Amino acid sequence: MALKAVHVSDVPSLDQPPEAPVVALSTSSRLCKGEGWENKAERLVVIGHRGKGMNALASPDPRLREVKENSLRSFNEAARFPIDFVEFDVQVTKDGCPIIFHDDLILAEEEDGKISEKLVTDLSLEEFRSYGPQRDRTKAGKPLFRKAKDGRILNWAVNADDSFCTLQEAFQGVDPCVGFNIELKFVDDVVYEDEELTRSLRATLRVVYEFANERPIIFSSFQPDAARLIRKLQNDHPVFFLTNGGTQIYGDVRRNSLDEGIKLCLANGLQGIVSEVKAIFGNPTAIARIKESKFALLTYGQLNNVPEAVYMQHLMGVNGVIVDLVQEITEAVSEFISPDAEGDNKALCDAVEAKVKEASRPKFSQHELSFLLRLIPQLVQQQQ
């Protein structure tokens, strides 16, 4: 992984999709409305991951346990900073209500003291609301737990807790100046029929059309058929395909590379790709192919919490980044896209963009080498 990190930094109808919507990214106060993502002069878009950052309960970094992810509190905390969107995960309960929750399973302590695991989409809205902190403070919700990547069951404890919310409550309770990046969430290894996906997507669209008003919306999904169908069901909001870009392999080949993602977008009239940032650093020439296809490119992943990695992407032509450390990254972005910074870095930016277009490895200037030497140790540390 360390060697890869170093190499990666080298180059900075239902059959006929409706006419593509304009990819306008936010309100005029945060981003010029009506300009395309492909405009290379456009500033880098910053998107708050699950609001002000995901909850990584096993992480030694206390910032990742600061505020409950995917909550109204987290969304509004993120909105205090100059972000363009908050990203969150939408699933639909068994009684048809779009709710905001990331994991497939919800873990809680039952009355007998045992930890139960239930599929979120098997719950009714009332059952979903019974977990965690309650809006009615006279009531106690079921204590929440979460499974870490190593299999440990951890108490879902954060400094600033909040109750779960529905998609409707997010529209009604979050700063209207902030756009919503709505990830349409489905279980990874389940094969869905179009009818089941469509039923869920229609439930989400009903809420969007009733409550979105002028708020900018982006839809995204790792589920290729969900992305295909949401594009065919509506013509008002851009649709992006989420992909690990080959950093993880799935049974559905459409999910296994950036080139497969490009093919899916071309075939279905999607407007962009959201890639794991490691896939972009590992295959920087894909940026040229994505841009040639007139797609926007966003990234997600832990490296997006490293300011130097975000800066490198800005030079490479990435349109936006989804980040956990909202305050730190917005401050860094405001510095390196300021007029003075643009002037100081013009030669470097031009050189890197040229290298990406040529799909060749550059001969670095001393300035470029100095920048990369500062970047690489942090990239290596993040990927270990």
Describe the structure.
The chain has 384 residues and is α/β, with parallel strands linked by helices. The chain has 14 helices and 14 strands. It has helices at residues 2-8, 72-78, 125-129, 167-173, 194-211, 224-233, 258-268, 277-282, 286-292, 307-316, 326-336, 339-344, 346-358, 366-383; strands spanning 45-49, 85-92, 98-100, 105-109, 115-119, 144-147, 153-155, 165-166, 179-184, 217-221, 239-243, 272-276, 296-300, 320-323. Strands 1-2-9-10-11-12-13-14 form an eight-stranded parallel β-barrel, surrounded by five helices. A hairpin with a 5-residue loop joins strand 2 and strand 3 (98-100). Helix 1 packs antiparallel against helix 14 (366-383), helix 4 (167-173) runs parallel beside helix 5 (194-211) and helix 5 packs across helix 6 (224-233). The longest helix has 18 residues, at 194-211. The radius of gyration is 21 Å and the shape is globular. It starts with a helix and ends with a helix.
